[in-house]
Design brief:
Strand order of the largest sheet: 1-2-3-4-5
Low-confidence stretches: none
Number of strands: 5
Mean pLDDT: 96
Radius of gyration: 14 Å
Number of helices: 4
Order of helices and strands: EEHHHEEEH
Distance between the termini: 18 Å
Largest sheet: 5 strands, antiparallel
Structural class: alpha+beta
């Protein structure tokens, strides 16, 4: 599995099926903030929806089409950063990211995106 330590505070890791419940809780807690920017939030209604997201990300990685990682801050899941798709012909990838509302303002996402790149 993918694991990358960015610094003493932050690491990126493949999301695994056992991360579905914490990922759903984080999404649910941050729903009001996230829905302004991310249309999928209102379609994420259960832990099973988060599990499906994780499975999709793992398949995408296995197919070499993208990389979806959970952001760990002091070992706790705080958000997601990903290459939503790889364009191997042009050597580019599009980046997507979101952070739980209670983790904003700590420089987490800046460091997570830098680490992903």
């Amino acid at each position: 599995m993918f694991f990358f330590e960015i610094d003493d505070d932050i690491a990126l890791k493949h999301l695994e099926i056992h991360d579905a419940a914490p990922l759903f809780r984080l999404t649910d807690e941050s729903r009001d903030t996230l829905r302004k920017w991310l249309s999928w939030v209102d379609h994420t209604k259960t832990t099973e929806d988060s599990k499906s997201f994780i499975e999709s990300g793992l398949k995408q990685f296995a197919d070499k089409k993208g990389l979806t990682t959970g952001i760990l801050y002091h070992g706790e899941l705080t958000g997601v950063v990903s290459f939503n798709q790889f364009d191997w012909t042009n050597n580019i990838g599009s980046i997507g990211y979101w952070l739980g509302s209670k983790y904003e303002g700590k420089g987490i996402m800046t460091r997570a995106v830098s680490g992903l790149i």
